[in-house]
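Subject: design request, 272 residues
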């Protein structure tokens, strides 16, 4: 089952078709057993309009985990070595406590087809294709979607204390197109990213969910230790794909992230 947020309301997709739900988004995110709740909706009002998904988030906070893949660790060590930050990334990769940071309020998140942004004061910007967990108020994983954790690598690399500015700004996060309902994603799931400029492929990369060093439950457990989320939250799980150091995003670039089980999240980089 896939759950979409649309301007008509929440739309649930079964292999047999789509239905429009009566519950509003935040109510759904508060349901204790979302899968069971949704399974009973199959006989609801059919939804036959073309699907135009919005960002699948309303009042949920978006958090993110970092340095959960070897590729992210090596990229970060390299970008911050002149600032003496390299060892932080090495250490957090192996440490028991993961890196967790606040990424965006729900209203700041862009959906499929919307523009994402690079900071005007950044020289080196990249997308980060990630699996995002939907976690309910009880700390239970209820689904997965695709996330793009847009990042300014020069700002992050200059000083690790600049991380919030490198990570959180208008247009720095996109999510979608749908929540794949369920608590587990198969380890073999692949996360593919393509970046096109003027119709030409600039970068193409892939990783698998199995390459993440930590378990999703472990990340959730740390996040929920001292935080409560009455309407649930979204947790980006880190990137395993980083373009080569010579690459930076430019306005007009088209970023396409594919996870076959979930769908395609495509965004264009805004002009400014
Ligand atoms: O520590 C910097 C951020 C790491 C991150 O966002 C990632 O690994 O995905
Ligand atoms: Mg990231």
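Subject: RE: design request

Done. Sequence follows.
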């Amino acid at each position: 089952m896939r759950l979409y947020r649309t301007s008509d309301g929440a739309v649930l997709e079964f292999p047999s078709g789509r239905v429009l739900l009566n519950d509003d988004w935040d109510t759904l995110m508060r349901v204790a057993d979302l899968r069971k709740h949704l399974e009973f909706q199959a006989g609801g009002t059919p939804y036959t309009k073309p699907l135009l998904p919005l960002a699948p988030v309303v009042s949920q906070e978006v958090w993110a985990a970092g340095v959960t893949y070897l590729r992210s660790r090596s990229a970060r060590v390299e970008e911050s070595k002149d600032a003496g930050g390299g060892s932080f990334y090495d250490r957090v990769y192996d440490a028991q406590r993961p890196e967790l940071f606040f990424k965006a309020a729900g209203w700041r998140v862009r959906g499929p087809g919307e523009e994402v942004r690079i900071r005007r004061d950044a020289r080196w910007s990249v997308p980060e294709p990630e699996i995002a967990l939907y976690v309910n108020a009880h700390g239970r994983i209820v689904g997965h979607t695709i996330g793009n954790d847009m990042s300014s690598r020069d700002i992050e690399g200059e000083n690790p204390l600049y991380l919030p500015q490198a990570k959180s700004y208008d247009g720095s996060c996109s999510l979608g197109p749908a929540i794949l309902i369920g608590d587990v994603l198969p380890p073999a799931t692949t996360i593919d990213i393509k970046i096109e400029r003027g119709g030409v492929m600039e970068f193409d990369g892939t990783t698998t969910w199995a390459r993440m060093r930590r378990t999703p439950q472990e990340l959730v457990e740390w996040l929920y230790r001292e935080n409560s989320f009455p309407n649930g939250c979204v947790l980006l799980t880190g990137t395993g794909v980083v373009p080569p150091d010579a690459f930076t995003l430019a306005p007009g670039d088209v970023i396409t992230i594919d996870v076959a089980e979930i769908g395609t999240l495509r965004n264009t980089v805004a002009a400014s």
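The CA atoms of residues 146 and 176 lie 5 Å apart.
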